[in-house]
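User: Hey, quick favor. My workstation is busy. Could you predict this chain's structure for me?
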Amino acid sequence: MTGSSTPSAHTGSAQSASVVHLDIPDGREVTHRDVAANGARFHIAELGEGPLVLLLHGFPQFWWTWRHQLVALADAGFRAVAMDLRGVGGSDRTPRGYDPAGLALDITGVIRSLGEPDAALVGHDLGGYLAWTAAAMRPKLVRRLAVTSMPHPRRWRSAMLSDVRQSRANSYIWGFQRPWLPERQLTADDGALVGRLIREWSGPQPPDEKAVEIYRRAMCIPSTAHCSIEPYRWMVRSLARPDGIQFNRRMKRPVRVPTLHLHGTLDPVTRTRSAAGSGEYVEAPYRWRLFDGLGHFPHEEDPVTFSTELINWLKDPEPDR
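Assistant: No problem, here it is.
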């Protein structure tokens, strides 16, 4: 079954290229290439010139979730780069390296490989969790931080352990702790579960069926399901382990770059209450923005509103607290 075997670095590379090397909506062609970082190879999609903005996708998606923002950012004078995280899309599927500290080093390594001194990080869902982590671990490489649909890692841990409603909302993460079965479920019927999750997690304007079909195909690339689940297995199984406790302590280090925190009021995966307390870990200008009527994917559900908010903030020389 797809995703049920231990991956090797280049598992499914030929198939992944045909699935993930896509164009974006307005007919513009993005530049697809691979960059080396942190001992692995990462696929990126790039458009525009200017200060680097690095876009980090969440589950169950890949770089293409940022297709609208790539255009908007490029038009606004930025070098917009969307990367596939380790194990997803066109990036290497390695046997190890799915803990958040390691994944954050993938991200900062990509910044260096792109020849840039720093980047504004924009992360959604798991990509947001890793963006928080990278900003705390490698602050000199992160110019600004924008996170959507994900609390700070310490807030996430606290909510999962003490908030019954948040723990229930993340029931899929608890389900990922089982061996083998989650991979089979994600790839069954050509990734039908991926489509169901995206529709259930969205507000009244979910991504269209074409987008859902693309995400379903990407999840069925060999070993992708396994690699997509591994970060969540680490996040839960490490809660009481020394490595998880050590990571939680490391995340006490405050974020010291301007931070934009975005959230949909109808997000059924991450409760607004869970995300809203993340500002206590930011010792810099922090802006909290709620999108009324949007769910877990605000950048896809209302890309114009999301992109406008993001770009205005990126261009603000002194974003207020």
